[in-house]
Each structure stands twice: as C-alpha cells, then as structure tokens.
Specification:
Largest sheet: 7 strands, mixed
Number of domains: 2
CATH architecture of the largest domain: 3-Layer(aba) Sandwich
Number of strands: 11
CATH superfamily of the largest domain: Periplasmic binding protein-like II
Radius of gyration: 20 Å
Order of helices and strands: HEHEHEHHEEHHHEHEEEHHHEHEHHH
C-alpha cells in the first residue's frame, strides 16, 4: 500500500472538521491536488442531503462510479445519507438550463466558457470561480481522437483524411455540444499549425470537413450512438474517453481508435453553483463532492473511465492507458475560450458562415 495515499474518507473528514472556513468573499488559492480544500461553510449534520450535478454527455458512467464512492466516503467522514442526482446533455444546453433555473448544486461541464456563462449571464457563481480548485478547476483532462470501423476500411490516419471525397464524418453540433466545440477547434488548430497553414487555410479545411458531416447531434453521446448503433459514418470525432470506452469494451471487435498527429488538450472544468447550493443549504457537501474528484480515489475512478487524471501519482499509475502525442491548448492557438467562442460559435460567427446543412 502506498503510504502517501490518504483514503478518501479520511481526507473528507479532515476537510470537514479541520479546514478553516472561508467567508463568501474569500477565494482559496489552488495549485495542486493537496490545495483542494475549498470553502466549507457548513459541517455535516447527519441529515439526508440531495445534490444535483448538471453534467455533459459522456460522463454518465464516470459519475455513476464517482457518486457511489463519494457517498461511502461522505458517510465514513461523519456525514449522513447523501444522494447525488444527475442531469446529462450537451454542455451548452446544460449551461443554459442552469441559467434558466435548473437548480444545480454543482456543474461538471465540457468547457470553461459554459461555466463562465453562469457568472456572466446568471450571476450564479463568482467571476474567479476557476481559481477555487486545482488546475483551473479541471480535475481531469481529455483530448480529441478518431474512432473508425474495424479494419479501418477508409484508411483514416490523420486530419487530412477526414476531408477526402466519400468519407462520412460524425461529430456533434458546436452550437449545443461542448465536445463538438473541442472537435472543431482541434481540426482548426491542425490546419492552422501545419506547414503552409494559416487562418485562410484553416477556414477552408473546416469548411470541407463539415461538408462531409451528414448529421449534427446535439451532444457527444448522441453522435456516438449515431456512429455505433445507427451505423452512420466512416469516422467519429470524439473525446478520447468516449473513444476508448467504445473501442476497449464490448465493441472492441467492431471499432478501432485512431490517434491523429496532433490534437487539442481538452479540459472540462467543474464548479460549485454558489447561489443554488447556498439556497438549499448544501454548500459543504457540494464542495466536498468536488474536492473528492481530486482525491487519489477520485483520480483512479476518472482514469478507469479513460479521463486523464491530473494528480501526478495517478497519472503515473495509469500512464499505459493514455498515449503520448502532441497536444496544443486553447490559450496557445485561440487566446482562450472567450475569444474562441466569439470568433467561431457566437451567432454569425465562423461556424454559422461555413456550415451548410445537408439537404
């Protein structure tokens, strides 16, 4: 047994009973998993608690396991019975639902822009929400890869193969799906950074790519279903975790994962929804739930479901699962999510200009 690993139950007990509480105006700094103490303004009373986690599409299996493990750790740490309810869907649609009144205690969405909207449009969280937990409130990461049918009949090896005539590409709608926005930006970044690339070349490449897309589902899991169950398309552009889930389990004889030459580092963040959690009196439990994601147990569960853990120890334990290949960040290529959203996905942005639905 690794003597440096603290059980999740003990860690939660320490957080609840020993961590100093922060006032509502305080924002704890965070630079690593050990700093994820959060703002616990309540102690567990032993009363039954229900939390609502509003999440994006491909996290269903992940949070099914996380919720079971956290419930046990919460009880062992002195808390009472706790139930975590889930809501899944396209990340952008989920964010709008929370702004419109879906009273999430926590959100675990696909990208920072969607959570930022909870502040900008809903005033539900503080402006500096991303500083409250380690790694900019991103407890796990992913990237964008391809899934093809067994034997790779179209010989798809890299991004350039997706724009060839006769290749049918499945990807969700960037207007509703966070995963789709990561897919789009990964493709754009590839074309922008390749030899001879530039903004004009990237625009031309992505225009040609979406001409090969026969249908846009509202979320990433819907696109996986379209590809795997409806059997549409030659290649699925997908979160790495979704691709590995599809190709390494019961469907390993039907599909293969293809790793492109370069992709984007996808960082899906999490946050307490302060206004709703405080209204319902569940801030302590909601904070502990998010902190559990950074525990070694939480990190191992993330890796089990093919999300890349952020803890160095967990990353080392699961290094064999995740291939190393070049990945750029959204800050490096697009100047961050606010700039990318405005240029590409807002009404009248580049995506609206280039996408022509199939008739």
């Amino acid at each position: 047994m690794n003597i440096h690993r603290i059980s999740a139950a003990a860690a939660l007990l320490i957080l609840i009973l020993a961590a100093p509480a922060c006032s509502k105006k305080e924002t704890p700094s965070a630079s690593g998993p050990g700093a994820a103490t959060g703002a616990l303004n309540q102690a567990p009373s032993g009363e039954p608690i229900t939390l609502l986690n509003v999440s994006y599409d491909p996290t269903r299996e992940l949070y099914s396991d996380i919720n079971r493990a956290f419930s046990k750790a919460w009880a062992a740490g002195g808390g009472g019975p706790i139930t975590i309810r889930m809501s899944h869907g396209g990340s952008g649609k989920q964010a709008r639902s929370v702004i419109d009144g879906l009273e999430a205690d926590v959100v675990t969405l696909a990208l920072a822009y969607d959570i930022q909207m909870l502040h900008d449009k809903g005033k539900l969280i503080p402006a500096d929400w991303q500083k409250r937990l380690p790694y900019n409130s991103t407890p796990y990461a992913s990237t964008i890869v391809f899934v093809v049918r067994k034997g790779n009949p179209k010989k798809i090896r890299d991004w350039e193969d997706l724009i060839q005539p006769g290749v049918s590409v499945i990807t969700p709608n960037p207007k509703t799906s966070g995963g789709a926005r990561w897919n789009y930006l990964a493709a754009w970044g590839y074309a922008l950074r390749k030899p001879g690339g530039g903004e004009a070349q990237a625009r031309e490449y992505v225009t040609r790519l979406f001409k090969n897309v026969p249908v846009l589902d509202s979320g990433a899991r819907g696109s996986t279903t379209t590809f795997s169950e409806r059997e549409l398309g030659d290649v699925l552009i997908a979160w790495e975790n979704e691709a590995l889930l599809l190709t390494r389990n019961q469907n390993r004889d039907r599909f293969e994962t293809v790793i492109p030459s370069v992709s984007i580092l996808a960082e899906p963040p999490v946050s307490l929804v302060d206004n709703y959690a405080e209204k319902r009196g569940v801030t302590a439990a909601a904070n502990a739930y998010l902190q559990f994601l950074y525990s070694e147990e939480g990190q191992d569960i993330a890796a089990k479901h093919y999300f890349r853990p952020r803890s160095p120890a967990a990353a080392q334990r699961h290094a064999g699962v995740f291939p190393a290949f070049p990945q750029f960040t959204i800050e490096e290529v697009f100047g961050g999510w606010a700039a990318a959203q405005k240029a590409h996905f807002d009404e009248g942005g580049i995506f609206d200009q280039i996408y022509q639905p199939s008739r």
